[in-house]
Specification:
With 378 residues, this protein is an alpha+beta fold. 62% of the residues lie in helices and 11% in strands. It has 2 domains: 209 residues, no CATH class; 161 residues, Methyltransferase, Cobalt-precorrin-4 Transmethylase, Domain 2. It has 12 helices and 10 strands. A hairpin with a 2-residue loop joins strand 9 and strand 10. It is elongated and about 75 Å long.
Length: 378
């Protein structure tokens, strides 16, 4: 299954890369014959940029995630289109307002999504007001950098991307308005409901958080895990020794896996909570090495697979998990936020409904189930 998924992503990446290169080649030839120096220059630069990831892989032995590479390539092509459209229609005030407002809004949206991921992953600790301000600054700073880029292009190619100081200020003002609109009204709307593009950015960031992490963060995370362990189990904190292996028999046991999943479902149906896997009931760090996964990526894929199968795709946005080194071992931290819909755990015999009651997960049946669902989700 993993090989098939990777093969599918590889084919999609090759298709997108080839499609963008073909479009850039068409732009090069058409702009050359029409004498459009700006489009020609940017198309050539864009085409050369598509080979940078391959060069980095060959020289530095570093590999870009396929999704990140595709996003960068689409951004390059979007920059080409944006510059070309602006060059052709910059005399139309309303059109200029629209594209700059839209560009500011999109950048503000991406910045807000990125900051939400960093906050949720505890790489950034800030209140919502500061997050909104930082998202605005992210968008506005990129807009300012683009104005500098336009200045140098006009100076080198004698083009008309900037029609004077007033045009530059209009670009910055409309871009700021777009960024401000998203920053002020987007946070509450995007909190847990980011839409298709927001989900893409969110997942892309989560899969590549190592880009943002340093040694200090890892040390901080390890201390925080130990602090959680010292606080002991509660209605919103539980420990599990392993993800799938029975330490008494030394074999893979579906009951162990079921115990992890029912805790997650109980958190989703209640007030949320944290599950630490790799810690026994007495608070001792036993590590996930006992589960015998080939590597950490295999473990994460396994967890994602059972969550999709037994909990359901619609509830994945409410579940965050990451591995942390603690005392030369690894602990899996699973954080669950309260679900807005009732969640059932799928089993071979049907579906089960769990809630948190003190430090344990309780299965509800019959009238108890109906009354709880009506009160909690009604």
């Amino acid at each position: 299954m993993d090989f098939a998924r990777a093969h599918s992503r590889g084919k999609f990446h090759f298709f997108v890369l080839s499609f963008i290169r073909i479009l850039l080649l068409v732009a090069i030839f058409s702009s050359f014959y029409s004498g459009r120096k700006l489009v020609l220059t940017m198309a050539v630069a864009g085409l050369l940029a598509t080979f940078i990831p391959a060069i980095v892989r060959a020289v530095f032995k570093k590999r870009f995630p396929a999704e990140l590479e595709i996003l960068v390539l689409l951004a390059i092509y979007g920059l080409l289109i944006f510059s070309s459209v602006k060059y052709d229609y910059h005399n139309y005030f309303l059109w200029n307002l629209f594209i700059n407002f839209g560009a500011g809004a999109i950048l503000g949206f991406v910045g807000l999504t990125v900051l939400m991921v960093l906050t949720r992953e505890e790489l950034l600790d800030a209140n919502p007001g500061l997050i909104v301000f930082m998202a605005f600054c992210f968008s506005f700073s990129l807009g300012g950098l683009f104005e500098i880029f336009e200045f140098f292009v006009d100076s080198a190619l004698d083009t008309g991307l900037q029609a004077g100081l007033t045009d530059t200020m209009n670009d910055l003002i409309f871009g700021a308005l777009g960024a401000g609109f998203v920053s002020l009204f987007g946070y509450r709307r995007l909190n847990g409901r980011s839409g298709a593009f927001g989900s893409f950015v969110f997942e892309l960031m989560k899969r590549n958080l190592r880009i943002f992490r340093g040694r200090r963060y890892i040390e901080y995370s390890s201390r925080k895990i130990l602090s959680l362990i010292e606080s002991g189990e509660s209605d919103q904190l539980e420990f599990k020794s392993t993800l799938r292996k029975n330490l008494h028999t030394g074999k893979i046991d579906k009951r162990i896996e079921h115990a992890v999943l029912k805790t997650i479902v109980a958190y989703l149906n209640s007030k949320g909570g944290t599950l630490l896997v790799g810690v026994d009931d007495k608070g001792r760090v036993v590590g996930l090495e006992n589960d015998d996964f080939e590597n950490n990526d295999k473990l994460k894929l396994y967890l994602t697979g059972i969550l999709r199968r037994y909990v359901g795709n619609p509830f994945l946005p409410y579940i965050d998990y990451e591995l942390y080194p603690v005392k030369d071992k690894h602990v899996l931290k699973i954080e669950c936020r309260p679900s807005k819909k009732r969640v059932f755990l799928k089993t071979e015999n049907g579906e089960e409904f769990y809630v948190r009651y003190g430090p344990s997960s309780v299965k509800l049946l019959g009238n108890d189930l109906i009354e709880y669902v009506e009160e909690r989700f009604g």
